[in-house]
Amino acid sequence: MGENGRVQLQQLFSPSVQHTLDVIGIFVFAISGALLAVRKNFDVFGIAVLAEVTALGGGLFRDVVIGAVPPAAFTDLGYFLTPLIATLVVFFLHPHVERIQTGVLVFDAAGLGLFCVSGTTKAYSYGLNLTASATLGLATAVGGGVLRDVLANEVPSLLRWDRDLYAVPAIVGATMVALCIRYDALTPLTSGLAVVTAFALRLLAMRFHWRAPRAWNRRSTVTEE
């Protein structure tokens, strides 16, 4: 798919639809960051910082890499304010939010699916090859969570063997988009299928506790740090 394909790619979704999907994903990711901040006993400023970083970190990294500067996180007030709204929700209602943690995780899985697809398509539309685009799609989906855990002084969940699969569903979703682009098959329908596939894989991983394998013939008795 050449330049004409990239133009067609940009026309797949209207700006308003893309913006709405982004804001939904940002809000859900911000909730997860704010909840971790509450568990860590952060003050309101710390809660806001963790919410902003979790929600915008992956997209910010992607935009800097592809040269989409200033990044959307700084040019769209809605992107910046949405995590602050999530901060207020968690600050005042965190006991209630904690009680619906399963629901939050479901929406987080949906955000994972949305961001791995939107990140891949945006990277490709800026001229990156398919492999690099899929990689940035993954980074868009999981980057904020990695930054969240680092700031909270935790080993990123992405790297822990005792956590249900998170990156793998995003990899699958981003790869599906890349293959659809390669074969000129990317449409709103196939994009939606990639989102649903990543979303469903994440839900199945949570339901059945699917985890990535550790080193073959591992002899260490350490189970967790």
UniProtKB/TrEMBL annotation:
Tell me if Calcium is a UniProt keyword of this record: no
| Keyword presence, Glycoprotein | no
Question: Pfam families, alphabetically?
Answer: Gly_transporter
The signal sequence is: none
The listed locations are: Cell membrane
Indicate the transmembrane segments per the record.
Answer: 20-37, 44-61, 73-93, 130-152, 191-210
Where the record annotates domain Glycine transporter, the positions are 20-94, 106-180
Q: Which UniProt keywords apply?
A: Cell membrane, Membrane, Transmembrane, Transmembrane helix
Cellular compartments per GO CC: plasma membrane
Membrane topology (UniProt): Multi-pass membrane protein
* InterPro entries for this protein: Gly_transporter (IPR005115)
Similarity comment text for this entry: Belongs to the UPF0126 family.
- Fetch the PANTHER family from UniProt: INNER MEMBRANE PROTEIN, UPF0126 INNER MEMBRANE PROTEIN YADS-RELATED
* Protein name (record): Integral membrane protein
Q: Which organism is it from?
A: Streptomyces collinus (strain DSM 40733 / Tue 365)
